[in-house]
């Protein structure tokens, strides 16, 4: 499906990508989580182009990526990103602990924004998501452009996030000029998103930095966003990360709905080896068309890293639908994996 016209640039040839970003164009760049579609966060035309290329609705705000020398709120204020006059002492304390421990890395913090950051970036919200990516190539591009870069995942809206340059080519190759290749993404699921309040930190999107990781360094409670707060993170739509085929998330392979058993299906084994799952199916006279196993030994890091590539691969098989098993735990990074699977799945 690689019909794209985009050029894939490797580590040693990023200059055209840097020039394009400086000229207000959009470029796909690697990060440690997923590939991003980057544009100058201070240029509304560039930001508008990101929304257009992704076909992303304007109510879904973008994350602003920063170089690793902007590590304090003072730095972020001087860079025109954060409005420090709206930062309370409690927010400041939480920011300091989180930035010190988890940046650069897969954590996005939602903070009061300055007016220099266009309303387009934040979808009209008065807060902006800020993330300092750890990927060396992302950092190199941020430094060479000297710009804060707005970057959502480099997929068409609502679809699976890309974790390789080829995935970006398949998604957006006919719409963009450059894709910087940084290899397969290390983490594989998008950053943890938190909003800082004076006396609380809200978890808006689970990721590699888990609730217990956050709690270990904060002096305020961490709460998962209720539906009310999900309104404040409009991008967290219930349906997202979706393959083309319908994906059914099942608790128990022994009780697959009869209507599904009649279809040719693919199997995504989320944790543990495939043998046991295949045996349960075989006992019912069922054989999947294609099988992907995320982590034979139930390692969450390994499973997250292969999740989106596995969904893409099954999407190409001749099966009519996908059946995914539920992870056996919701701890740590498994929470992010089950969150993405739930959003990819069809609801009855
Ligand atoms: O790992 C990541 O975060 C990747 C890489 C490229 O950095 N980016 C990413 O961006 O996943 P995106 O646009 O696909 O998801 C960002 C989500 C939005 O959908 C929204 O839910 C939340 O972050 N968000 C961003 N800015 C926000 C804001 N100002 N207030 C509330 N939520 C915000
Ligand atoms: Mg996305």
Summarize the structure.
The chain is α/β, with parallel strands linked by helices and 348 residues long.
Please name the CATH architecture of the largest domain: Alpha-Beta Complex
* Distance between the first and last residues' Cα: 31 Å
Shape: globular
Helices and strands, in order, run as EHEEHEHHEHEHEHEEEHEHEHEHEHEH
- Count of strand segments: 15
Helix share, percent = 25-40%
Give me the side-by-side strand order of the main sheet: 2-3-7-4-6-5-9-10-11
Category by helix and strand content: alpha/beta
CATH fold call of the largest domain: DHBP synthase
Beta fraction of the residues?
15-25%
Major beta-sheet overview: 9 strands, mixed
Low-confidence stretches: none
CATH class membership of the largest domain: Alpha Beta
Query: CATH homologous superfamily of the largest domain?
Result: DHBP synthase
Molecules bound to protein: threonylcarbamoyladenylate, magnesium ion
| Average predicted local confidence, pLDDT | 94
Rg, alpha carbons: 20 Å
Give the number of helices. 13
Overall structural domain count: 2
How is this structure best described in words?
The protein has 348 residues and is an alpha/beta fold. The chain folds into two domains: 7-230, DHBP synthase; 247-344, Rossmann fold (3-Layer(aba) Sandwich), CATH 3.40.50.11030. It contains 13 helices and 15 strands. It has helices at 15-22, 44-54, 73-78, 89-102, 119-122, 136-145, 165-172, 211-217, 227-230, 258-261, 274-282, 300-315, 333-344, and strands at 7-9, 27-29, 36-40, 63-65, 107-112, 127-131, 149-150, 178-180, 192-196, 201-205, 222-224, 246-250, 265-269, 291-293, 321-325. The strands form three sheets. A nine-stranded mixed sheet has the order 2-3-7-4-6-5-9-10-11, with helices on both faces. A four-stranded parallel sheet has the order 12-15-13-14, with helices on one face. The protein has a two-stranded parallel ribbon with strand order 1-8. Strand 2 (27-29) and strand 3 (36-40) form a beta hairpin. Helix 12 (300-315) packs parallel to helix 13 (333-344). The longest helix is centred in the C-terminal third of the chain and has 16 residues, at 300-315. It is globular. The protein starts with 6 loop residues before the first strand and ends with a helix. The mean pLDDT is 94. Residues 152-153, 161 line the site of magnesium ion.
């Amino acid at each position: 499906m690689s019909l794209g016209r985009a050029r894939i640039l490797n580590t040693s040839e990023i200059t055209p990508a840097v020039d394009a970003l400086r000229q207000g164009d959009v470029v796909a760049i690697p990060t440690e989580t997923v590939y991003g579609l980057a544009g100058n966060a201070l240029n509304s035309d560039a930001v508008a182009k990101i929304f257009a290329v992704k076909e992303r609705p304007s109510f879904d705000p973008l994350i602003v990526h920063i170089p690793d020398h902007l590590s304090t709120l003072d730095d972020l204020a001087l860079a025109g990103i954060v409005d420090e006059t709206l930062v309370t002492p409690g927010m400041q304390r939480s920011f300091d602990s989180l930035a010190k421990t988890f940046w650069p890395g897969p954590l996005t913090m939602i903070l009061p924004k300055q007016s220099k950051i266009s309303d387009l970036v934040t979808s009209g919200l008065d807060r902006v998501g800020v993330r300092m990516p750890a990927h060396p190539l992302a950092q190199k591009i941020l430094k060479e452009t000297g710009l804060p870069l707005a970057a959502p995942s480099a997929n068409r809206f609502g679809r699976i996030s890309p974790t390789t340059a080829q995935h970006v080519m398949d998604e957006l190759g006919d719409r963009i000029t450059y894709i910087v290749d940084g290899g397969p993404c290390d983490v594989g699921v998008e950053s943890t998103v938190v909003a800082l309040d004076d006396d609380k930190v809200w978890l808006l999107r689970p990721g590699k930095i888990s609730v217990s990781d956050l709690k270990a360094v904060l002096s305020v409670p961490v709460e998962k966003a209720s539906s009310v707060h999900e309104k404040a993170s409009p991008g967290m739509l219930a349906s997202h990360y979706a393959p083309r085929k319908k994906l059914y998330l099942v608790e128990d392979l022994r009780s697959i709905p009869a209507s599904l058993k009649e279809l040719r299906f693919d199997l995504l084994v989320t944790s543990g080896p495939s043998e046991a799952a295949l045996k349960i199916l075989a006992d019912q006279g069922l054989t999947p068309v294609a099988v992907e196993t995320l982590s034979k030994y139930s390692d969450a890091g390994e499973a997250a890293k292969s999740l989106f590539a596995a969904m893409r691969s099954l999407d190409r098989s001749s099966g009519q639908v996908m059946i995914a098993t539920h992870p056996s735990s919701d701890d740590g990074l498994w929470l992010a994996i089950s969150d993405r699977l739930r959003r990819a799945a069809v609801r009855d």
